[in-house]
Amino acid sequence: MSQLVEVRVPDIGDFKDVPIIEVLVKPGDTIAVEAPLITLESEKATLDIPSPVAGVVSAVKVKVGDKVAQGTLVATVDVVAGEAKSAAGKVGVTEGNPRGTGDTAVAPKKSGTTPVTAPSTSAAAPAVASAASFTGKPDIECEMLVLGAGPGGYSAAFRAADLGLQTVLVERYATLGGVCLNVGCIPSKALLHVAAVIDEAAHADAMGIRFAAPKIDIDRLRTHKAGVVGKLTTGLSGMAKARKVDVVRGYGHFLDAHHLEVEETTGSAQEKTGAKRVIRFKQCIIAAGSAAVHLPFLPDDKRIVDSTGALELPFTPKKMLVIGGGIIGLEMATVYATLGAAVDVVEMQDVLMPGPDRDLVKVWEKQNLSRLARVMLKTKTVSVEAKPDALLVTFAGEQAPKEAQAYDLILQAAGRAPNGGKIDAAKAGVMVDERGFIAVDSQMRTNVPHIFAIGDIVGQPMLAHKAVHEAHVAAEAAAGQKSHFDARVIPAVAYTHPEVAWVGVGEDEARQSGRKVSVAKFPWAASGRAIANGAEYGFTKLVFDAETHHVIGGSIVGPNAGDMIGEVALAIEMGADAVDIGKTIHPHPTLGESIGMAAEVEHGSCTDLPPPRKK
Length: 615
Ligand SMILES: Cc1cc2nc3c(=O)[nH]c(=O)nc-3n(C[C@H](O)[C@H](O)[C@H](O)COP(=O)(O)OP(=O)(O)OC[C@H]3O[C@@H](n4cnc5c(N)ncnc54)[C@H](O)[C@@H]3O)c2cc1C
Prior knowledge:
Layout: E1 2-8, E2 18-23, E3 30-31, E4 36-41, E5 46-50, E6 55-60, E7 67-68, E8 73-80, H1 81-88, E9 140-147, H2 151-162, E10 167-171, H3 178-183, H4 185-203, H5 218-242, E11 246-249, E12 251-256, E13 259-266, E14 271-286, E15 290-292, E16 304-305, H6 307-311, E17 319-323, H7 327-339, E18 342-346, H8 358-368, E19 374-376, E20 379-386, E21 391-397, E22 405-407, E23 409-412, E24 416-418, E25 451-453, H9 464-478, E26 492-494, E27 499-504, H10 507-513, E28 517-523, H11 528-532, E29 539-545, E30 551-558, H12 561-573, H13 578-582, H14 593-603
Parallel strand pairs: 9-10, 9-14, 10-11, 14-25, 16-23, 17-18, 17-23, 18-19
Antiparallel strand pairs: 1-8, 2-4, 2-7, 3-6, 4-5, 6-8, 12-13, 13-14, 15-24, 20-21, 21-22, 26-27, 27-30, 28-29, 29-30
Helix pairs in contact: 2-9, 4-5, 4-7
The structure holds flavin-adenine dinucleotide.
């Protein structure tokens, strides 16, 4: 049995005779609870009118240009009886509370910002299948709930709080900061810094300065790394307190589109105490991140670790295998090789470090292949036998050794998988794909418009700075601002020695796609600072669109490449051309001036290289 429900414009505050600028549904559309039906635009704001029920639109009673006020009939929706109860039963369908939460269609106004609910487009597909309904009494109520306190989650929570939303942040671990601060970006960079110091000391010999061979006290190194992490995570807790963000410790999973249950956890891991609390939220940002992929054929043995285990520095192995030649694998290979391990790297693809242009990786290889004991490309790990004295590994593929190889530590760095499948998102009506990713629109809204998702859980590239940027967009959109993810580029960096950094369109990618580009390269062999630093092997490259002459990509290989690539990203965002970059005065002597010089190469005005060939 179905029931025809009239959907009317709810209480929209002081707004009267507000014109409709978009009608988002048509008769026959299947819609979810909260799916936006129309968009209104007043002098002060735009706002969506969502459907309080799921069903099939039987008629749309308004059109673009019509002026509406509270009570105007928008559409009629054919609702299957059972479903009508769960959604419409909680809300005054024709009386106009579209969210069924006591709030109106307008976002909270605490900050005094213009209230806006922006239109959700691509991800707001009306496809909520089995949204559940929780009828119990919540323990905590909030305007904004953020699930997961990684760089995405804590940034979203802090931004939301700064914009006046009363915010709760749920995290299963004892400290804030997620993968990045606790077991990712920061501890890996602390160890890579130590590796760089050891490298530098060794290279100083060529400059007439001889140090004794380093003595590594692994316990103190571990303590140093923990100290770096501790300083940052403690700082985050303080900032949460200062913003009155309520941090709730435990494992969260959805009960429905407005309730999350948190199973309390304790200790340094995720041990559950049995206590549970239910949080009722008006809006939510899912920032539950990702986890390392564990290869199913590997035995359960403490000598086989993922990046988290490797960062714990259990011991310095004599022989180590790194499975996976991507950035994380190569960063950890750098650390362990510098600490004294003989490191083999096995990679199924035909290249190491997929992503940047190959000419950058060639430079990296020249500086690094001697550091590694063996690199096996187009080769896979077939089996691992855990013996008491060693892990015996068999390989297959082009560069596979015939005999099984013995290792005392194996790092599996075969990628990361999103946590979307572990939070009962379906109960909230949020669509999760078969890999665990959640689709979002440009405001980071999921298909359920008051639930946003950000960071690793929404897709590649899985990088902390992307998560933070998305966090700000989501929090601002939730607070009623017209924020969208409209960044043109996201830079990427391998913090190896040397560093490899790239952003925007690569030269290889442009050539493969047939895009007409002009490429300008400044070799660091002509940079005074690079020569002084012993880094003349590096280079800086810019890619320009052949028609607009705007810079569309850039890459750098050499020390501090990661610190410099931001300038290229800014130039791309600003639509700069070679003159803009080249005529920006860069300080001398720096590695950064190589960006200005690469632009001068493009422009034909570089005087630090032999004269350009006449065209
Ligand atoms: C070794 C390593 C090095 C890296 N180095 C870099 C780097 O140099 N630069 C860079 O940009 N990126 C780096 N990354 C990637 C970066 O760490 C991630 O992209 C980033 O942490 C993603 O942020 P996030 O907020 O989306 O998720 P996460 O950091 O994964 O945080 C998610 C949080 O949610 C919590 N959570 C998940 N599910 C639940 C639940 N059900 N209930 C409660 N809490 C939950 C988790 O405990 C976690 O704290 C590195 C990653 C690794 C593994």
